[in-house]
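Quick note —
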Amino acid sequence: MFNWTILFAILLIFSNFGKSRLTGAAEATTGEASPQRIVSLKPNITEILFAIGAGDRIVGVTTWCNFPPEAAALPKVADYIAPNVEKVLALQPDLVIGAQENSWRQSIDRLKSAGISVLLTSFDSIDTSFDSIRTIGEAVGAPTAAAALALRLKLAMDALTRTWQHAPTPRALVVVGHWPLVAAGPQSFIGALVAQAGGANIVTTRETAYPRPAMEMVLAKDPEVIIDLTSGMGESAVQWESTFPAVKAVQTGRIVTLPTDLFRPGPRLAHALQTLGCALHRGCLTP
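Predicted structure written out below.
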């Protein structure tokens, strides 16, 4: 059975890339001392903290925090949208880090009112994500490690993009939901990665980041590769062979399933881009 709750949260993870609602890279109420008890309110923030050497100071995370593996064992004090204020306060954090996008502001305001230092960073684009990595590093006393991480990601992604610059541009359908069929459009974060990886997204509508493409459209655009990002969402898989038997991707067996949580704006972003490029171009190219 299709799990609408999981799909809704997955789409929220990506839907605000390219749609900043607040000005500036961060919105902070933080003190000067390096925090020793940190709560992370987003899975990508948890990954960033571990990547810059602050993982041992995390005392609470979300139910979506599953990477690195040790993050899964930490106390769960939030879902993807809203923290459980009482659970957060019980941990006595000296810093809570969340995102400006897709955060329940009433809960955030309650934490601030209780005297908790809160840092809200923005992940509304790839470049803004790099800025936020640096901002988080400064907030937790690891500016050098964070700056190095952001630079390493940017250089790696730029090099990958150059690698595919003159490669053929395969027509691609990127699926984030099966029942009904939901695809990543060009306005979405995933759509931006597809373009950067040298793919041609068959979904061209810009009315919504994650539209529901009609079967007739998929048949007419005839994708050469289908990227399925529904792994771990708990829904029944589309039987591609019976649903789209005439589509080239089905006829040539180019249906690739990739893990959804790899595509987070964090330290694995270059790996996500490379993995996507490998799927699009029939193999991994090293810049």
